Automatic annotation (TrEMBL):
Listed name of the protein: ABC transporter ATP-binding protein
UniProt GO MF annotations: ATP binding; ATP hydrolysis activity
Topology in the lipid bilayer: Peripheral membrane protein
Any single biological process term in GO: peptide transport
Matching PROSITE patterns: ABC_TRANSPORTER_1, ABC_TRANSPORTER_2
Gene3D superfamilies, A to Z: P-loop containing nucleotide triphosphate hydrolases
This protein's UniProt keywords: ATP-binding, Cell membrane, Membrane, Nucleotide-binding, Transport
GO terms under cellular component: plasma membrane
Amino acid sequence: MEKELLRVENLTTSFCIDDQYYAAVDDLSFAVHENEIVAIVGESGCGKSALALSIMQLHDKKRTKSEGSIIYKGTNLLNEAESKLNKVRGRHISMIFQEPLTALNPLMTVGKQIEESLHYHTDLSKKQQKAKTLTLLEQVGIPYPKRTYKQYPHELSGGMRQRVMIAIAVACSPSLVIADEPTTALDVTIQAQILDLLKDIQQKTKMGIIFITHDLGVVAEIADQVIVMYAGQIVEKGSVKTILERPLHPYTKSLLHSIPTVKKEKNRLHVIQGMVPSIAKMNRSGCRFKERIPWISVQSHAQFPRLHEVEPGHFVRCTCYKQFHFPKEGGTAIR
Ligand SMILES: Nc1ncnc2c1ncn2[C@@H]1O[C@H](COP(=O)(O)OP(=O)(O)OP(=O)(O)O)[C@@H](O)[C@H]1O
């Protein structure tokens, strides 16, 4: 087993809405090891980004509360002062955002933005920073590093901008990278190139990656471990093979059922009814997914489902997974 990099224990992050706190991340526990890619999967609003920003401690502290622990190298990041966190962010744990155009500074050249991180976190001289920046640009597949060094983000294509974001994220050789939907805004061929690039860097550096996505195709491509989130909770977790080949939670099964395949397109696709509930309106008693599988009897959802291990390394939060079935075609869940 590789060395553990990060351990999240009973993490709950709540946001203040109209003077009341509501949990968007609800009692989450998991670990990331060296050389491991952990995918966090779920629909929009499940709490994936809230989790990522909690690990980075980037939430507005006046309106956000995080409880539990986020253990990195033996210390709980939740107890660390901002000055210490600034030394961890970018140097030890870094982040790649979905939209590089909003994450990058539009007024600063690409080269200066990479050098800024090297300047803050390393003792390299100006000359060394420039040399390292050009090497990084080359490593992330920028065809003309010297030219791109002097360009502004808006002068680059979406794929090139994402490569620059990756160069910034890996500039100081972090041990952990959190990638929040890094390929969602890109077209499929560029998506595949960016995934290859991330995997390539990860294999060379042995860094751990938390990869946030709603796309199970991407999960199959990149992940070692998969965490499926629904309404702030982990509903299933296990190895990528287990989750894709032997999913048990009705939500995981529904996500997999809604992926188009040539065979399925002849029939109609499964549509998961309704939406992820908002944190302020969520019914937190019992199973949170019950409203979206109305054909399953209410008695099956009566107990509060706890995340339990059903086989080594495979955890499920459901009391009715053994009886779960999809309605026949034309039933309530098929549109
Ligand atoms: N700063 C905030 N204040 C109040 N509520 C928030 C805040 N940030 C997120 N939320 C709420 O927390 C829940 C989880 O949001 P989050 O952005 O983490 O979901 P997500 O799974 O990352 O979705 P997406 O894929 O669309 O980014 C949502 O109900 C969202 O409205």
